[in-house]
Amino acid sequence: MKHKEAILASSKRIAPYVHKTPVLRSQGINAICETNLFFKCENFQKMGAFKMRGATNAILQLTEAQRSRGVVTHSSGNFAQALSLAAKSLGVTAYIVMPENAPQVKKDAVLGYDGKITICQATLAAREATSAQIAKETGATFVHPSNDIDVIYGNATAGLEFLEEQPDLEVVIAPVGGGGLLAGTALAIHYFGKDCIAIGGEPSAVDDAYRSLQSGKIEINTSTNTIADGLRTHLGDINFPILQKYVDKIICVDEVAILEAMKLIYQRLKIVVEPSSAVALAVVLQNKNAFKNKQVGVLLSGGNVDLQKLPF
Q1: Which residues form the Tryptophan synthase beta chain-like PALP domain (predicted)?
Q2: Which of 84, 111, 208, 299 is 20–30 Å from 29 (CA)?
């Protein structure tokens, strides 16, 4: 029962520092999808994404001595912002390694939360090497965006809240990129849901998680050609076994469905989400028969979209 207690403890631990996000419904989207949809709106979370939960939980688990030396991560986007804001709210220094091609809007957001940015080449090897160098020089603790158990438990609190508000959900769909949100969601559903399954949504263009569950080993992508920029990363050795054990399946969706889902959310729910969030609804749109007349939870992971580059 280690996971169950850890999720409950995480929920209590981070409560003073994060928002309890709303669950929205749309009769219009229900009619289009022929099912009963509930949207958990993590786009309303502090810094605009679920990652605030995991980042906060990870920092709160550090000792005072560790906190005094700061935290370091590498991220081109949401986790960079999440760790910066979580660190700022807890009086901890955050060192953020960002690839040179990271959007300026994301860099500005990190700086706005007092994160200390180091720019590196846009390769995973460069990101990891730069992070390791900073950790060595400063004594900062490395916090991985998705492959860290305290981050995963923090992320799981969104699923826990979802089920507390909608205990009769039969399915919860979450997007999968690095695997931290889906792993946490799947754990929450296993321990707190009743007759509920976790499904991952993934762009067909970056279907590494889908292939990983098929092959039984972590697969990676050679291309990153998807509008869902938050889902271009691959799984890690901590979250992958959790996905193998607790996720029912991963369903891949095409770019057209992602775009259609994103438009629907803007038009019908009247809220701003980033493309990665829309992937979960795209799963339902592209597979209506599989979800017909079910109670389906859709986890909207974040709303940090560059308004200069809206895809429609």
Answers
A1: 15-302
A2: 208
